[in-house]
Structures are given as structure tokens and as C-alpha cells.
UniProtKB/TrEMBL annotation:
Keywords assigned by UniProt, alphabetized: 4Fe-4S, ATP-binding, DNA damage, DNA repair, DNA-binding, Helicase, Hydrolase, Iron, Iron-sulfur, Isomerase, Metal-binding, Nucleotide-binding, Nucleus
Gene Ontology MF, one: metal ion binding
Family membership noted in the UniProt record: Belongs to the helicase family. RAD3/XPD subfamily.
Gene field: RTEL1
Region (Disordered): 77-96
Protein name as catalogued: Regulator of telomere elongation helicase 1 homolog
Length: 1028
């Protein structure tokens, strides 16, 4: 495992680090050493999370070894108290820094823990989760939200008869097992430990977190005031890390705001009335005076007055509503005698009311002693609102708020159905309030990182924190792996502009649909199409299904033409249906001839946090700018607030600040950058970014696109240019992309999803000859490989993206030189094409763009004369002493393959003329192999020939494609698939330009009675691949 010395800290990294990774780790350590905050942007696929973990934990380890069990930590602290580190004051040396690593969701935290397992670091750690993830109680685990919380708390009271059996053993279990958390554990691991030991996983994590080196948790554990107070952490020695922080500003603002609709207020009044009745009944039946009916009567009276006061507010315009500055909330409440002094009393009454209601539910629930009730009481929300308004016994924070009352139509589920109800809102427009609390707590450093933080100045301005350390990292991909372009017009020349005045026209929708038909035809495998809103998405699809055939000679609709090329999936509005949509997309992607298309929405679930790597997403289409609705009260007031703030700053000469229009535009482009980031997910991925709106041509729009994309964006004046260059991009990337080097994980890594197949023996297709050729030839230690291999290819699966730069080669993959010769045709520069012979993968990466450039200028015949058939020589090339190359064998009847192509080309009525160009480039390739093959292949050595064919199949297919190949063969053997379907599946895998030798070579292994069927499939498949 390589070790890098960065700013005096030795960082163990599991792979040979890219330059951008070293820069990223340097910035992390700089922030930690200087006790400063950092804003770090690094594109997805650059190993951001692993770099962040390794750099932070290496810095932490410089203070002393990790806490492996409680006894170890006490001894470490004793030793540290005797020798003070120069980076820590004397008063802080008795304790080690604690790292709190947060991300948006539990699924993202799960991925971070996987990255930790890949590293060499084993800190004491734990993941904090909610009861929903961790509860193992038979009845409470079935509940959700506050109902679950209430039920859990009720069962954990020692005086109750139904005391939770799992709760009592948590603390004792941790004492007897101090090693829990020494190795990386996830939510599932905690649940398994709890089930096997009988201890509550939720309270286990709460016990463990008191004494850890690194704590993992979702954002709300830090942003939410109540959750933060429950953490036993010394904040002055704490490092806070917010991963995927691009949404942090909106989350902070939402956490500090509230909405109080009429329906909620009515429910609270009803609950207060129930409390009066319950307390009176108790007093009458058992002389229980614990709860005073007078207190609940006062609470109900105040809530009734608040309801009436909100209803009496004059609203002149339904669109504008009633708006006041934030401090007006205190004036409104003071009229009801709700002040700073009385608020605490009311909060106490509300807490007692909730307890009484809980007890009343348990008595009247009818479930006997075994009933576990988890009713959510609306009065708790009123208590939270009062706590937010009167927090810290101060009113200073109100200046960052706006009070708004609006009339809304009651929903169908509301008791006010058919009536107009009102909602009182108190919105926070300064997300920095939550972050400033960390500064007051004395947190050592705050690191915010994501793939889309730009523009950073506005991001820092919104959070009201100083970020001395900043970074905008480039991507690790090379220029020939990305196509990015603006399509301002469609196939008919109609302008693309999704603004309000244009998007409703039939012409715009039809033009956009016809453009997507073209993209569906050109782009292989998965295609993502993002719309500005659900409304526009639904309007366009409706138009495509019913219209769009006016200018066509047949009656085919636009939707039918899209479905001809790719199977469609539409993102649902309902969150509950989203997992089904994802499964549907992956199923269609795997089963369709030419892939699937996912129609989604910017800021929707598809655009946030999902990985569409490799075949899952070869291109993303942005159909417009997703501006928020200007008439939305929250958007309008936010813009006004920022403009007022800028004006105030100017008046006191404190700089410009962020204007409302700038914020409005930047939020839009940040949403676009998030959607774009769904594709090109790792070092060896590739894809296209298609911006279908003329407004992307403006320099101010492009300046806000992620910095790693910006240099590649080209503006095309005609749609034909887009089609031509996009077609060439996918053709060239398949032809000229570097040969793959597949890697296996280290012992502590999750294994790659590679199917190691045994020798195949099928009934209907004679492949007994194809014996597996994937035996070890040599072994490599990770240290030597890290020094010699700079780049590598890796298998990727959706949502599980291991780093690209792994350091150990699989035993089954062969490194081969790549020899390319041009024909005598000259390029447009007058020079002959490059000849590349025996070059290492790293050298090929560095020259890939230069080599592709002249080929794009004029169509060339690039002859690939086959893999270098050299034996293992210690000094023959850059990879000597690393792997032992094997001879690549070709089928005997090359002449038959050549003759077959001649027959295909001759039948112009069956194969369209453009196919000749495709086969012309392959035919000399096969012919060139004749002499070399005849000299190296024995006609009687069928087993060797079959093995060599499998080697070539394994080399040219991706891991997922190879699994499909093996699956088709096994399905045939077990009669699970018709032979025609199996042959079609295999032919589709071999139909790309650089795999045509496989397409023809496989014919030899098809029994004679099925060869005519296979030839027909070959022709149709090749036509589909060429887009004909």
C-alpha cells in the first residue's frame, strides 16, 4: 500500500494516487493543521470520499494510535497528557480529536463505511441511525416517525410494566465487549449484533459513540438542535465533515423554519380539549391531581386565540399573501400573551399534555398489557415551534426571517376540503444560522465537500462562514472520454428554449421529441433525459404520444419512434414508486437491444445521489433551465431578502454580497450540475452531456457549469453538427479507448462482481472447445504494482463504484500491446497516421486525444493488426516482470469469415449501403491476420483455439457484458432460453465496431443447422448498431 508524505503527515492510500487526489488530500490536511474551514469540490469518480477519509484519519493518527477498546484509549490519553503535541494546546492534550462525518442519507453513509473498509485505517467508529433503522422490538419496529419515538420512550421507562427487554442490556453489553467498533461496522452490522445479543442496537450506538475516533451520522444529527444536544461530544476538539454538501444551505434553512397550517392548529386544539377531559376524569375517579385541567384549558384558549388571530389577518392579494419582517412574530404572539417569559411555561404544559395523551391511549387502546401505542401528537409540533421562535431566550435571529400568511385550498384529505384555509409560515433566509452555532461551540474545523459546490463565493456567503481553504478539482478522465455540447436548435431548425413563453407550443415539444429520437438512436445503452419540472415532462410525453406525426409520411408518433430505439421509463412524482421505476429501468436496460431511456426531472430523485455508471448512463440530456417558480412566495421573499441585504451592505461599505437574481440563477445551474453528474462516474467511464437550450450558449450560463466540464463544452449552430460529432464520439471511444486492465480488491475490499466461469459444455451450441483460459500467470504485490501501474480499468456496478486506480491485476486478464497501422490514405494534415506498437496503457492514455484528432478530421482506415504475440521478456516493455503474456489464437477458417463478409456486402438489398463502410474497415483487419495466424495456430489444437477465443471475448467485453455472455450460454444449456433469443443476445454483445471479429468468429462454434439463423441475426444486429 503506497504511503505519501503530505505536509509532514504520512498518508496510507490503498492505490497509486492521481495528482488530483494528492491535491485534494493536501487541502484536507491543510485545513486540519490550520484549524480552518475548507470548501472542497471534486467531481464524482475522483475518489473524493476515500481521499477525505485517508487524509483525515492520517492526521488524527499523528496524535496517537486509534482507540482500540476502552482500556486502550485511557492509556493513550495518559501518554498524551505527558507529551503535548505542538499542534494542540496544553489544555486540550488530554483528549484526542473526534471526527464527525455526516452525509445526507443512511445509504450514502453506508457507501462511506465501505470506503473505510478499503483503507488501511481502523479507527474506533460507529454509525448513528434512527430507531427506524435500528429498532429490533417486535412491535415498535413496525412504527415510523414520532409514533415510533414515543412508543420507544414509553417502553424504556423503568417503572412501566412493559419495560423493553432490549434497552436494559445495551450499556452492560458495551462494557463487556469494548471491541465493538474497532473494525468498520454499518447499520446492518449493529442490527445483527443486537439480534444475536438481545441488546438494543439503537442504544448500543448511543453508548459506543461516547468514546470513538470517528462518528458517522446523517446531517440532521448536527443541524437539528435536539439531536445535536443528545451527542456526548467535546465540540472544541471536533472535526465536522459534511459530504455531499451541495444541498446543505437549503437543509439548514428548512431546519430553522416552520409552517403552521390551519389543519394542524385545529388538531392541536382538539388534543388540548382531550387533555382537559382526561385530567378531569382522573381527578373524579382516582383523586389523581398530577395533571391540572386548568393548565390544559389555558393552552386550549391560547390556541383558539391564535387560530382567530391568523384568520383575522387582512390579505389583499391571494398571490402575494400577507408578509412582514421576522420580528413581527413576537408582536403577533404578544397580543395573545405569549412572550419569552410565558413560552417556557406553555412548553412545559405541552410536554405534560403529550404524556397524558400517551397514557390515555394506553388505557383506552384495548390492547391489554401487550399493546404498544405510538400515536403522534400534534401538540408536539406546537412545542417545537415555540422552541424555535424563543430559542436561546433571544430575538436576535428573527432579523433573518420573514413571516408570511397565505390562503391555500385544502387538500382532499383535509377536514377543510372545499374551504380556503390559511398557513402561517416563518421562513429562515439565512442558512448560516445553523453553521454559526458550530462556530460558537468552538468546533476546530468544518470541511464541506461535494462534486457540485461551484460557484463557491456564493456558497460561502450563504453559510456565513469563512473558508480559507478552497479547491475546485479537475476530473481524472481524459478529454476523449467526454462529449459536451450545446444544441440551440432542433432537427428542423426550431430554437430550443424551455422558458415559460415557449415551452407550451406544439412546435417546441415536437422539435424536442424529434431530437430525443435522434439521441436515442445514436447513444448506446442508457440515456437520461432531464426536464425542468414534472409538469413539462408530462406535457411533452403527452404531446409525443398523440402528436408529432404531422410532417411524417406515416402515422408513427414521436413516442413510438423513441420506443423503437430505447425502452422508456418515467420518473414518478410519488416517492414510494421510485424504487420500482429504478428496477424497471435496470431491467429494460439489460433486456433491450439498444438500451433504455429514463425521463426524469432536475431536483428529482434521479438527479440526486444515484450512480448511472457505464452502460446505465452513456449520455445525459438537459432539456432546459429548471428555474424555480418566480411567483412562489418563498422564492420571491428570498430574492427580496437578499436584495435588501445587499443594499444594507452597500450603505455601510461592507461589499456587494449575493443578489436575489444571482442566487436564483446559481440555484438553477447547481441543479443542472447535479443532474449532469449522474454520468461519467469513474476513471474509465465515458459519456456525453447534451444541453438542449439556446440559453446555454451564453457565457454567463457556461461559467456556472462545473469547472471540469467547462473546457469541453462546444456550441453547435446546427443540429446536424451535434448528430455528426456525437456519432463520431461514440464510434471513436469504442474503437480507440485504451485496453482494459481489470483489478481485484484487497482482502478488506468488497469483491468485484466478476463471474469466473467454469468450462462450458452446452447441448445446442458446440462450445466444449471453449475451455476457460483464466488461470494465474503471475502474482503481483500491491506495493510494486502501485509503483508501476499508473492507470487501470475497473468493473463498475450501479451504486457500487470502487475506485478506478486499484493496484492488483486479476490473474485472468492479460496485458497486451496495441499495434495500429493506418492505410496509405493521408490525414488532412498530409501526414501518415500514427503507428502505435507495444505501448503501455499509461502512454496510450496520454496520447489518446492526439491520436483521435486527425482521424476526426477525415475518415481513415485504421487497421488493427492484432495483439502483440510476444513471450514474457523481462526488458521488452514497461510491464516487464509484471505479467506473462499469452499467444492470442484465432479461428482456423479465417477465409470463411472473409468470404462471409463478401457475401454480406454483395447483398445490397438486404444490407443498407452504409454497412459497407462499417465492414470495409474490418475486412482488411481480418485479412491482415491470415499469415500471422497460420504461423502460430495449429489446426488440430481446437482446445487452444477455443481458449484463445474466450480470452478475446473476456478482453473486449466489460464485466457486466461478459456476465451476460456467460448467462446466455448457461441458459441455453439448461433450455431456459430459445436459441434464437440466445444468439440475438450474444450478437448484440459483439456488434460494436471493435468486436466484429468476435461476431464472425463465434459463427464457427454454432452448429451447422443453426448457422443460417445466426447469419440473419448478424446482419440485422449490425444494421441496428450502425443506426440504420
Amino acid at each position: 500500500m503506497p504511503t505519501y508524505n503530505i505536509r509532514g503527515i504520512n498518508v496510507d492510500f490503498p492505490y497509486e494516487a492521481y495528482d488530483c487526489q494528492l491535491v485534494y488530500m493536501e487541502k484536507v490536511i491543510e485545513s486540519l493543521q490550520n484549524k480552518s474551514n475548507a470548501l472542497l469540490e471534486s467531481p464524482t469518480g475522483t475518489g473524493k470520499t476515500l481521499c477525505l477519509l485517508c487524509a483525515t484519519l492520517a492526521w488524527r493518527r499523528s496524535f496517537g494510535e486509534f482507540s482500540r477498546g476502552r482500556s486502550d484509549k485511557s492509556s493513550i490519553r495518559e501518554s498524551l497528557s505527558q507529551s503535548v503535541d505542538e499542534d494542540m494546546p496544553q489544555s486540550q492534550s488530554s483528549q484526542l480529536p473526534t471526527i464527525v462525518y455526516t452525509s445526507r442519507t443512511h445509504s450514502q453513509i453506508k457507501q462511506v463505511v465501505k470506503e473505510l473498509k478499503r483503507s488501511n485505517y481502523r479507527p474506533k467508529m460507529v454509525v448513528l441511525g434512527s430507531r427506524e433503522q435500528l429498532c429490533i422490538h417486535d412491535q415498535v419496529s413496525l412504527l415510523r416517525g414520532k409514533a415510533q419515538t414515543n412508543a420507544c420512550r414509553a417502553l424504556c421507562k423503568k417503572l412501566t410494566k412493559r419495560f423493553c427487554p432490549h434497552f436494559s442490556g445495551a450499556a452492560e453489553f458495551v462494557k463487556k465487549n469494548p471491541g465493538i467498533g474497532d473494525d468498520p461496522i454499518d447499520i446492518e452490522d449493529l442490527v445483527n449484533i443486537g439480534r444475536s445479543s438481545g441488546s438494543c442496537p439503537y442504544y448500543l450506538s448511543r453508548e459506543i459513540h461516547k468514546d470513538v475516533d470517528i462518528l458517522f451520522a446523517p446531517y440532521n444529527y448536527l443541524i437539528d438542535r435536539g439531536n445535536r444536544k443528545s451527542l456526548k461530544i467535546d465540540w472544541k476538539k471536533c472535526i465536522l465533515i459534511f459530504d455531499e454538501a451541495h444541498n446543505l444551505e437549503s437543509l439548514c434553512a428548512e431546519a430553522a423554519s416552520f409552517d403552521l397550517p390551519s389543519s394542524l392548529l385545529t388538531a392541536c386544539i382538539s388534543e388540548a380539549k382531550n387533555c382537559i377531559d382526561l385530567s378531569v376524569a382522573r381527578r373524579d375517579t382516582s383523586n389523581d391531581k398530577t395533571y391540572s385541567p386548568d393548565d390544559f384549558a389555558i393552552l386550549r384558549a391560547l390556541l383558539l386565540k391564535l387560530e382567530k388571530r391568523i384568520a383575522d389577518v387582512p390579505i389583499q392579494s391571494k398571490e402575494l399573501g400577507f408578509t412582514k419582517d421576522g420580528p413581527y412574530i413576537y408582536e403577533l404572539l404578544s397580543e395573545l400573551n405569549i412572550t419569552q417569559q410565558t413560552a417556557d411555561m406553555l412548553t412545559g404544559i405541552i410536554e405534560r399534555a403529550c404524556i397524558l395523551l400517551q397514557e390515555g391511549e394506553n388505557v383506552t387502546g384495548g390492547g391489554g398489557s401487550h399493546k404498544t401505542n405510538g400515536t403522534v401528537f400534534r401538540l408536539e409540533s406546537i412545542g417545537d415551534i415555540f422552541g424555535l421562535i424563543f430559542k436561546d431566550n433571544s430575538t436576535a435571529h428573527a432579523q433573518y426571517y420573514r413571516l408570511h400568511i397565505q390562503e391555500v385550498e385544502a387538500s382532499s384529505n383535509d377536514s377543510f376540503k372545499g374551504k380556503t384555509s390559511r398557513t402561517l409560515s416563518w421562513w429562515c433566509f439565512n442558512p448560516g444560522i445553523a453553521m454559526e452555532e458550530f462556530a460558537r461551540l468552538g468546533v476546530r474545523s468544518i470541511i464541506l465537500t461535494s462534486g457540485t459546490l461551484s460557484p463557491m463565493d456564493s456558497f460561502a456567503e450563504e453559510l456565513k462562514l469563512e473558508f480559507p481553504v478552497r479547491l475546485e478539482n479537475p476530473h481524472v478522465i481524459s478529454g476523449n472520454q467526454i462529449w459536451a455540447g450545446v444544441a440551440p436548435v432542433g432537427p428542423s431548425g426550431y430554437s430550443f428554449n424551455s422558458s415559460y413563453r415557449n415551452r407550451g407550443s406544439i412546435e417546441y415539444k415536437s422539435e424536442l421529441g424529434n431530437a430525443i429520437v435522434n439521441f436515442a438512436r445514436i447513444v448506446p445503452d442508457g440515456l437520461l433525459v432531464f426536464f425542468p419540472s414534472y409538469y413539462l415532462l408530462e406535457q411533452c410525453i403527452s404531446c409525443w404520444k398523440t402528436n408529432g406525426q404531422q410532417n411524417l409520411s406515416n402515422s408513427t408518433t414521436i413516442w413510438e419512434r423513441i420506443c423503437k430505439h430505447k425502452l422508456p421509463v418515467v420518473e414518478p412524482r410519488q416517492s414510494s414508486l421510485f424504487p420500482l421505476a429504478i428496477d424497471d429501468y435496470m431491467t429494460k436496460l439489460k433486456g433491450a437491444n439498444s438500451g433504455a431511456v429514463f425521463f426524469a426531472v432536475c431536483r428529482g430523485k434521479v438527479s440526486e445521489g444515484l450512480d448511472f455508471a457505464d452502460h446505465a448512463g452513456r449520455a445525459v440530456v438537459i432539456t432546459g433551465l429548471p428555474f424555480a417558480t418566480l411567483t412562489d412566495p418563498k422564492v420571491r421573499l428570498k430574492r427580496e431578502y437578499l436584495d435588501h441585504h445587499v443594499h444594507s451592505r452597500k450603505s455601510i461599505n461592507k461589499g456587494q454580497g449575493l443578489t436575489g437574481e444571482e442566487w436564483y440563477s446559481q440555484q438553477t445551474l447547481r441543479a443542472i450540475n447535479q443532474a449532469i453528474g449522474r454520468v461519467i462516474r469513474h476513471r474509465h467511464d465515458y459519456g456525453a452531456i447534451i444541453l438542449c437550450d439556446e440559453r446555454f450558449s451564453h457565457s454567463n450560463r457556461q461559467a456556472q457549469i462545473s469547472s471540469w466540464i467547462r473546457p469541453h463544452v462546444k456550441c453547435h449552430s446546427k443540429f446536424g453538427e451535434v448528430v455528426y460529432t456525437l456519432t463520431r464520439f461514440f464510434r471513436d471511444i469504442q474503437t480507440y479507448r485504451p485496453p482494459k486492465l481489470e483489478f481485484v480488491p484487497n482482502d478488506d475490499q468488497e469483491p468485484a462482481r466478476v463471474s469466473q466461469s467454469s468450462p462450458l459444455s452446452l447441448d445446442k451450441i458446440n462450445l466444449e472447445k471453449l475451455q476457460t483460459a483464466f488461470n494465474p500467470t503471475s502474482s503481483l504485490d500491491s506495493a510494486s504494482t502501485a509503483e508501476k501501474v499508473k492507470r487501470g480499468s475497473i468493473s463498475i456496478h450501479m451504486r457500487e463504484i470502487p475506485p478506478a486506480n486499484r493496484s492488483t491485476l486479476t490473474s485472468g486478464m492479460l496485458l497486451r500491446g496495441l499495434k495500429m497501422k493506418s492505410s496509405s490514405v493521408l490525414t488532412s494534415t498530409g501526414k501518415e497516421s500514427l503507428v502505435i506498437n507495444g505501448r503501455s496503457k499509461q502512454d496510450y492514455d496520454e496520447k489518446a486525444v492526439d491520436m483521435a484528432t486527425p482521424i476526426l478530421l477525415k475518415k481513415q482506415k485504421l487497421l488493427i493488426t492484432g495483439h502483440t504475440q510476444s513471450t514474457h521478456e523481462e526488458k521488452s516493455n514497461h510491464f516487464s516482470n509484471m505479467v506473462k503474456t499469452e499467444h492470442l489464437q484465432f479461428p482456423e477458417n479465417i477465409c470463411d469469415l472473409n468470404r462471409q463478409e463478401t457475401e454480406v456486402l454483395a447483398d445490397e438489398r438486404t444490407v443498407k449501403p452504409d454497412i459497407r463502410m462499417l465492414f470495409r474497415d474490418v475486412k482488411p483487419d481480418i485479412a491482415k491476420h491470415k499469415d500471422a495466424v497460420s504461423a502460430t495456430v495449429s489446426k488440430n489444437n481446437i482446445e487452444t483455439k477455443g481458449s484463445a477465443f474466450l480470452v478475446e471475448v473476456r478482453e473486449k467485453l466489460t464485466v457486466s457484458e461478459y456476465e451476460d455472455f456467460v448467462g446466455s450460454m448457461k441458459a441455453l444449456k439448461s433450455n431456459e432460453m430459445k436459441i434464437s433469443h440466445a444468439l440475438q443476445s450474444i450478437a448484440r454483445l459483439f456488434c460494436l465496431p471493435d468486436r466484429l471479429s468476435l461476431l464472425h468468429g463465434f459463427k464457427e462454434y454454432v452448429p451447422a443447422k443453426y448457422r443460417s439463423l445466426y447469419e440473419e441475426i448478424m446482419i440485422s444486429t449490425t444494421c441496428d448498431a450502425a443506426g440504420l
